[in-house]
Specification:
By secondary structure, the chain is mainly alpha-helical. It has three helices and two strands. The protein has a two-stranded antiparallel ribbon. The radius of gyration is 15 Å and the shape is globular.
């Protein structure tokens, strides 16, 4: 069984993964791809990731929503690929080394 993390006082414990390959792949590449696409300032990416991750994990537990998550995550990944304009998520950015690092 997958490990779970507390969701806070108002919600159930959340799993580590959604169990939906398209969503887990999207989350695994989220930070690097958003950094490469420069969608948000570097200091805001982690907060957006945390929010997206929490929402997808929560939705993966909802039997009414779960069946649609695969297509939702595929759509999110497609939009991100378009925002990359052909760049790779793993390509070094034009920023100097260490820029945006904590």
């Amino acid at each position: 069984m997958a490990a779970t993390r507390p969701a806070g006082p108002a919600g159930p414990a959340l799993p580590d993964k959604t169990g939906i390959p398209a969503c887990d792949d999207y989350l695994a590449s989220y930070v690097a791809c958003h950094r490469a696409a420069a969608i948000w300032p570097p200091d805001q990416i982690q907060g957006h990731y945390d929010e997206m991750r929490t929402n997808l994990l929560r939705d993966s537990l909802d039997p009414e929503v779960r069946p649609q998550l695969g297509s939702r995550c595929t759509s999110l990944a497609l939009g991100l690929r378009q925002a990359l304009h052909g760049k790779s998520c793993t390509q070094p950015s034009a920023a100097p080394a260490g820029a945006g690092s904590p």
